[in-house]
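Suppose a colleague, Dr. K., hands you the sequence of a protein chain of 190 amino acids and asks what its three-dimensional shape might be. Before reaching for any lab equipment, you can write down a predicted structure in token form. Begin with the sequence itself:
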Amino acid sequence: MQLPPQFSAEEELIAGCLSGNRQAQRQLYETYSRRLMAICLRYLKDQEQAEDVMIQSFMKIFEKLSQFQGKGSFEGWMKRIVVTQALMAIRSNRSLILAVSLEDAERIQEPATEALNQLEAAELMELVQSLPLGYRTVFNLFAIEGYSHQEIGELLGITESTSKSQLNRARSVLKEKITSLQLQPKITNG
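The predicted structure, expressed as tokens, is then:
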């Protein structure tokens, strides 16, 4: 990734932020805010809530920046902070229920997977976004962020088997949604 000309290297940008340079802080925000906002939106459907989490995440990033030791990617380090902040927002909002009833899972049928090949990435992300909160959270953590079921269990306060179950249900719901999309006639503008 190419940084804007003001700070030519990631290390210089981090050093600028650590020294309190407002220009460096602004550049860090402008460089990464879109990607980090996309992560927030994967976990939180509400735009305002996602923006709040992103802002809280940047505050945490600036607060903890001195703890970044250069091991691994800087962007990966920031993403972990964003995911943690999103999960904290989910946990703190009592109206967001993480679990999905077994009744909902039982009515899911196993559709054909051929339809997945014809989907665009944006359509797939839209489908993931439409999943119930529990399914979406586990799916994002496992399939997109790369966490293990053990790590997911620890992050969400659930068992490893519950994480696996939620992921399987999420996949089933996605397959069902993909199949139903493929059965609908395409409408073209023209």
